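Researcher: Please predict.
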Amino acid sequence: MIWKRIVARAISEVCSFTRLNERRSGLRILLYHAVGSHLSGDNYGISIEPKLFERQMRSLAGNGSVRVVGLDNATLSDAALQVAVTFDDGYKDNLRTAAPVLLKYQIPFTVFVTSSFLKKNSGVYLTSEELKELALLPGVTIGSHGASHQPLAKCDDLTLSRELADSHSEIEDIIGRPVKYFSYPHGSVTRRVRDAASRAGYVLGACSRFGVNHQSRDIMLLCRCEVVAADSERVFSQKLSGAWDWYKCWLADPADDSRGLRNGLT
């Protein structure tokens, strides 16, 4: 894993000094998971140190070349670059650690929650009461991340339908407002999964594939750029500017692939 990151950073350094990341328009969605939680088995590094997260958000808020938006008011446009912040899974620290920082810098954000995690009482994931509290904060949108965090492309039709519908209704019942957005667990999405999510009532779908979203992008298959614990402020800046978008070349685009390949991100 370490050598892969070294190679990836080297490629991105080259990209940052070339014209490969020249186009700074469209909608870039950042993908986070946890901020400060100690997660067992987190070899990938999805939990960001709180101080680093704040530096990243301060940098984002002060970046005059981008417009920070929530998914509710984002547009798929080839005009100025928009940046939205999202979280997957529904960790407790999204409320206790991340939210105060985001509120401080007036950055709206979306949390995609796995509904079964709300019942774990593990000390790591949000409880139903905490989800209600989070949903009431200004600038916060709550979406679904499935009922049990299964790779949906591997599910049969009945299981797929339940994963989409159960999480939708359970989260709506808790927060008392419509749940319109969905992020695909493990980035596992095909055209079949995308269409099922649309039929289930979702109007926006978030993938785990790097890239910026332009006007022609399917709103049910939006790309996101994952930010991990090893990302320095420099790497964060590179991801904003597009120097890491080359990474999408290694991952199947669900907009083009109907066979059900998962893209390998969490």
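Model: Residues 258-266 have pLDDT under 50 and may be disordered.
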